[in-house]
Specification:
The complex is a heterodimer of chains A (248) and B (260). Chain A has 248 residues and is of the alpha/beta class. Chain A has helices at 40-48, 67-75, 92-96, 109-122, 139-151, 169-186, 197-203, 221-226, 230-237, and strands at 2-11, 14-24, 29-33, 55-60, 63-64, 77-80, 157-161, 189-193, 206-211, 214-220. Chain A has a six-stranded mixed beta sheet with strand order 6-7-8-3-9-10, sandwiched between helices. In chain A, a hairpin with a 2-residue loop joins β1 (2-11) and β2 (14-24). Chain A is globular, with a radius of gyration of 18 Å. In chain A, 45% of the residues are buried. Chain B is mostly helical. Chain B has one domain. The chains are: A alpha/beta (248), B mainly alpha (260). Chains A and B meet through α2 and β6 of A and α4 and α5 of B. Bound molecules: adenosine-5'-diphosphate and magnesium ion (MG). Residues 40-41, 82, 161 of chain A line the site of magnesium ion.
Chain lengths: 248, 260
């Protein structure tokens, strides 16, 4: 279980997170929705320690996420970054198998490569892609390689930052299904950021809406359609009118 | 207020400079503390050794050749004023191995390597590759900084040794072909007046300069600002800082080595 209490983070005068409270139960798929620039990526990075919150508490399974607890947490963790964040000095398969080629999960090269190719297949990429370099791929392909890398070592906790942005509708469907599978089959805890309502409905157990630096609404996916919360209503129906301003 | 203005104009950059030096010192200490602790990344180390050592050879060789030649001409012209033309071989050799070999080698490597390390790591930073390393349980200091700093610290003395030899050879070419020295006498003079410490001190300098170059590349890359502009600034700052630190360190080491 991941628990955030009163997380605040500002970049200079830009107060991005202003007291975020959120609980992500183990084995569930939590989806965070919210306009672009509201601090969703920053929130994930706070949990990972990549961004240091100004105040607030983060616990993972009841333990405060300090340096050593975080190392243990990261050991069984995978993340898909919004921009892919592939290592451009390494070919695709070595990106996917990064964890399997070094450190405690190290295994023979041939085996690591086989696993990488299998993971690439699961995200809809051909084995030939394995020997290309990230710069030779389209944005959507890079995203899927990033996804393959995130799941390569079968993590227990996975973060996906906009997994379907930049993909065609069919590929987006494939990825949604894959994320659902990972959560149900592997029993992983997932946190996904997305703007894509099809994606939300396909992968969420729970939804949280981030706006103005705080969680405005959170509940089960079935409750999302019914809620009268004006923020959620405006967001899921994509209306220009409502409490969320179009300029930010 | 106005009476204190000159002090604040002077004080602010001084304080800023000291703070920067402090941050660099902490970064250096952190790098050194990671040197001895596993995990190690031998593949990254070897790749950095190739990049920094092997691929810098042509640049260092060319600069040394021309510098050795020019040095011979200058010392001949200068020496002629008090009929001491015969000192050319020994002064070329001593000047090259003590001073010009390490300093020019260090500066050329700063231009070539500090910039490329800063640009590479800076780009990794702005495209979140450094963050990705952390999520893959890989410490960026161990994976990126340590191999490069170690490789440069080892490679630059080797480059300096090659540069020294080529510089002396450049002096020899000019001495024999333009200044009419006897080849055998030239070589004998070079050998007779050169001491082991002349050479060794230059190699120690090279190690220090290599450390500085890679450290500056990594420091400015890791602290790069956002976007292409951020990487551009980081690259420029790395080269400037490496060059200034090399020249300052060179003076300090020369004091330490030779002023006793
Ligand atoms: N490293 C940073 N330095 C300064 N500002 C940042 C940084 N990272 C994010 N921000 C700012 O925080 C806000 C939220 O960014 P982000 O979390 O990426 O939004 P999104 O919800 O679209 O993922 C933006 O205004 C962005 O400019
Ligand atoms: Mg984002």
């Amino acid at each position: 279980m991941i628990q955030l209490t009163d997380i605040e983070k500002a970049f200079g005068a830009n107060r991005v997170l202003r007291g975020v409270n959120l609980t992500v139960p183990s084995g569930e798929s939590m989806v965070i929705i919210g306009g672009s620039g509201t601090g969703k990526s920053v929130l994930l990075k706070c949990i990972l320690g990549l961004v240091k919150p100004d105040s607030g508490k983060i616990t993972v399974n009841g333990e405060v996420a300090d340096t050593s607890a975080r190392d243990a947490f990261l050991a069984r963790f995978g993340m898909l970054f919004q921009g892919g964040a592939l290592f451009d000095s390494l070919p695709v398969w070595q990106n996917v198998a990064f964890r399997l080629l070094r450190g405690s999960l190290k295994r023979p090269r041939a085996e690591a490569r086989d696993i990488a190719i299998e993971k690439l297949r699961r995200v809809g990429l051909r084995p030939e892609t394995a020997d290309l370099f990230p710069a030779e791929l389209s944005g959507g392909m890079q995203k899927r390689v990033g996804l393959a890398r995130a799941i390569a070592a079968e993590p227990e906790i996975i973060f996906f930052d906009e997994p379907t942005t930049g993909l065609d509708p069919i590929m987006a469907g494939v990825i949604n299904e894959l994320i659902r599978e990972i959560v149900t089959e592997m029993g992983a805890t997932a946190m996904t950021i997305t703007h894509d309502m099809t994606s939300v409905r396909a992968i969420a157990d729970r939804v949280a809406m981030l706006h103005d630096g705080a969680i405005k609404w959170t509940g089960r996916i079935a409750e999302m359609e019914e809620t009268s919360d004006p923020y959620v209503q405006q967001f899921i129906h994509g209306r220009a009118e409502g409490p969320i301003m179009a300029i930010r | 207020m106005t009476a204190l203005a000159p002090f604040s104009i002077l004080g602010r950059p001084v304080l800023g400079g000291l703070a920067l030096l402090g941050r660099i010192a902490i970064f250096a200490a952190e790098t050194i503390s990671h040197l001895a602790r596993p995990p190690f990344y031998p593949k990254e180390f070897l790749a950095a050794l190739m990049q920094i050592g092997w691929f810098s050879l042509p640049v260092v060789a060319l600069t040394s050749l021309f510098t050795g030649g020019a040095l011979a001409l200058q010392i001949y012209a200068g020496g002629a004023r008090f009929s001491a033309e015969a000192v050319v071989p020994s002064i070329v050799a001593i000047g090259m191995v003590r001073e010009l070999g390490p300093v020019l080698g260090g500066l050329m490597v700063a231009a070539r390597v500090a910039s490329s390390i800063a640009a590479e790591i800076g780009t990794m930073k702005v495209t979140e590759q450094i963050d990705a390393l952390v999520t893959l349980s890989t410490n960026p200091m161990k994976y990126l900084t340590v191999p490069r700093v170690l490789a440069a610290t080892i490679a630059v003395p080797a480059l300096v040794a090659v540069g020294d030899s080529i510089g002396i050879f450049g002096g020899y070419l000019v001495g024999v072909n333009r200044l009419g020295f006897n080849p055998a006498t030239y070589l004998k003079n070079t050998r007779d007046f050169l001491e082991v410490w002349d050479i060794a001190s230059g190699l120690w300098k090279g190690a220090a300069f290599g450390f500085i170059v890679a450290l500056m590349g990594c420091y400015y890359g890791m602290n790069s600002g956002r976007g292409a502009q951020g990487v551009g600034r980081a690259t420029k700052a790395a080269v400037v800082a490496a060059s200034v630190l090399i020249l300052a360190t060179n003076y300090i080491l020369t004091e330490v080595f030779f002023s006793a």
